[in-house]
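Hey forum,

I'm writing up a methods section and want to include a predicted complex as supplementary material. The small molecule is 2-oxoglutaric acid. I've pasted the protein sequence and the SMILES. Can someone with a working setup run it? I'll credit the forum in the acknowledgements.
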Amino acid sequence: MPNSPARILADLGFRYDPANVYQQVITQVLEAGHRLNLPRHLQLIMAEPKSEVMVHFPVEMDDGSFKLFKGYRVQHNNILGPYKGGIRYHHGVSLDHVKALSVLMTMKCSLAGLPLGGGKGGVQVNPRELSQDELMRLTRRFTAALGDNIGPNHDIPAPDVGTNAQVMAWMADTYINFNNATHHGSGAAVVTGKPVAFGGSVGREKATGQGVVYVIEDLLPEMISKPLADTTYSVVGYGNVGSWTGKLMAAHGSKLLAVMDHTGAIAPNDVAEGLDAIALADYVTETGGVANFPGSKPISEEAFYTTKVDLFVPAALEQMIGTKEAQMLNCRVIAEAANAPTTPEGEKVLAERGIDVLPAILCNCGGVVVSYFEWMQNRQSEIWELDRVDAELRKHMRSAAAKVLAARTELDCDMRTAAFAAALKHVAEVYRLRGIFP
Ligand SMILES: NC(=O)C1=CN([C@@H]2O[C@H](COP(=O)(O)OP(=O)(O)OC[C@H]3O[C@@H](n4cnc5c(N)ncnc54)[C@H](O)[C@@H]3O)[C@@H](O)[C@H]2O)C=CC1
Ligand SMILES: O=C(O)CCC(=O)C(=O)O
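Reply by user p_vandermeer:
Happy to help. Structure tokens for the complex are below, copy them as they are.
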């Protein structure tokens, strides 16, 4: 079949590697395109990013020595608008990871109805091993090394795993200094997720978790025939996205029965009470992880995955739900807060076991939606109130969910394929309208 994902990837010279995260993600996207009968030229365009930038840059450590770091910025597609997507600081960052995440950004921005394309970046580093000063120097050097590859009209980074509002402030400041751009001109709009005092938007810090919870509020009760007040859930990853999801689920009275992060897995001493999701978020901010949280006991990874809950929320890294985890999970629904947390093999097992998956590009698009609001505020010198941000975010999340449900009915497929199909349909329409492709 000339248009099958395998054929497209083979024609582009990919060597088949089922464990490769980029191949996993792009195959899923191309499968959705195949179902939509997207023309071959569009499938080819989607199959590779427009640009892959790799930089090496030296950073002075506190002891006076220099280390060389490797960073990436991958720009997948900008037919809908400037490239947009986060910057990750993690020791496992690789070109294929960043490529996979950049495709997901193109899909996510399209599904969310934003005039933005898809990009992603990262540096191979464990930020926990650096002092604040080293982190600042690394961020400034990385931003300088990216040079004109980023810019408020071209490519706009944001936070992701291992980065935060402070890192974005350093990026913006470096960009502004290098480009002689003023703070209140277009300069600050070069990145989003900045501190509110420096051009950030209220509501951006919680936006991804808020979007996840809006999707859960709208779709989950019907799927499990229970109100959120009676819902139990578990979370892997209790950083920005996981902890905000926890805090906002707590407001609904949902019960958190297990959490795992890079420091270990915990369960409540009193199962009837559950874990205090809000206190846990404060504890993680103070200590760096969930281990030894008062009122909890340590549990094994197996005990974490087999905890019986209604909802499981992966909010950590890619490919965490493989065959083994999918077989262990004891839940009814998964709301993917992380990007690409489920492998295709894991997904097959989940489908066989009747576990429904709310896909990542729907669940976690709230982050980039509020980033878009921040970018608009910067460009128009506006400051929005939280009520407005939340109300507009809710509209975008509802509209994205409606597109996914409509595509699922139209194509009679799973939610992930439906989400990619809805996103691709919009991208294809814009290519056609612009006269680039028939
Ligand atoms: N920050 C944002 O606005 C957005 C983030 N995402 C995605 O959400 C996910 C989480 O991102 P953030 O919360 O921003 O990152 P973060 O850096 O704030 O938190 C990451 C969490 O993952 C945990 N983790 C790392 N390795 C782990 C392992 N091997 N086992 C268990 N837990 C592990 C860490 O302990 C931490 O709790 C990522 O997939 C990211 O791409 C998606 C959309 C937007
Ligand atoms: O806020 C943004 O621009 C991007 C967030 C992001 O990296 C993601 O959605 O994965």
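Some notes you might quote in the supplement: The chain has a mean pLDDT of 96. Residues 386-411 form the longest helix (26 residues).
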